[in-house]
Design goal:
alpha+beta, Double Stranded RNA Binding Domain, Ribosomal Protein S5, domain 2, four-stranded antiparallel beta sheet, four-stranded mixed beta sheet, ribonucleoprotein, structural constituent of ribosome, Ribosomal_uS5
């Protein structure tokens, strides 16, 4: 009996030692605050005791706020660069869809052709490719804004003289017209003249009907346009001298020279 009692006492003592060794003392609130204060005095940051919420606040509230601020500034700069105080006329001329057959099926892509102008003598065209139509149009519009050219207009409504344009298999003829004629053009050429701000013009496309080649041929004809003012400066003369050679009087030539606007 005495031996059994001694064994039981030894077993209870061993279990008590194991429990004491396996358990970890839990720090009290006072000791934790003291440790935080010591770390703060040493130049460090106090440990956050919020668990998952603290991590979320550190990455979502502080870091996320800084990320959103940078993105917002970048968007504002982009808007300020595009918004330069003028209203542009954007016209979608053509959208082409292509497909590529791959192992999983068909992969589609889109190409957009866009004409952009301010309606006051500046016009440009561009094309863009993307997997989605809106993204392709955005790329084409940005490309058109970078390649805008200025075309001299007579009285702000028509061309100064007739011209011809050529690109590849596309050939176009453009002619100035009196007031009230309107835009006699079709397809891509109409979009160019409407964006340019021309109100009276007669055009004819000869050859290909490819919208890309037609627009390039039209721009070739527009780049060859010159105004009497530019010709007079190049020749070292006055505009009235050039206009008076057709038999008009000096007063009429000067009046016509003053009426000419770029």
């Amino acid at each position: 009996m005495m031996a059994d009692e001694n064994k039981n006492e030894d077993t209870q003592a061993a279990e008590t030692k194991v429990d004491n060794a396996g358990s970890t003392p839990t720090p009290t609130t006072a000791s934790t605050e003291a440790a935080d204060n010591q770390s703060a005095e040493a130049g460090g940051q106090p440990q956050q005791r919020e668990g998952r919420g603290g991590r979320g606040g550190r990455g979502g509230r502080d870091g996320g706020g800084r990320g959103r601020g940078r993105g917002r500034d970048r968007d504002d700069r982009r808007n300020r660069g595009d918004d330069d105080g003028e209203e542009l006329i954007e016209k979608l001329v053509h959208i082409n869809r292509v497909s590529k057959t791959v192992k999983g099926g068909k992969r589609f892509g889109f190409a957009a052709l866009v004409v952009v102008g301010d309606g006051k003598g500046r016009v440009g065209f561009g094309h863009g490719k993307a997997r989605e139509v809106p993204e392709a149009i955005t790329k084409a519009t940005a490309s058109a804004k970078k390649k805008m050219i200025r075309v001299p207009l007579k009285e702000g409504r028509t061309l100064h003289h007739d011209g011809r344009g050529h690109f590849g298999a596309g050939k176009v003829n453009v002619r100035s017209a009196p007031a009230g004629t309107g835009i006699i053009a079709g397809g891509p050429m109409r979009a160019v003249f409407e964006s340019l701000g021309v109100h009276d013009v007669v055009t004819k496309s000869i050859g290909t009907s490819n919208p890309y080649n037609m627009i390039r041929a039209t721009f070739d004809a527009l780049t060859n346009q010159s105004s009497p003012k530019a010709v007079a400066q190049r020749r070292g003369k006055k505009v009235a001298d050039l206009l008076g050679r057709g038999g008009a009087s000096e007063a009429e030539a000067e009046a016509a020279a003053e009426a000419i606007a770029e």
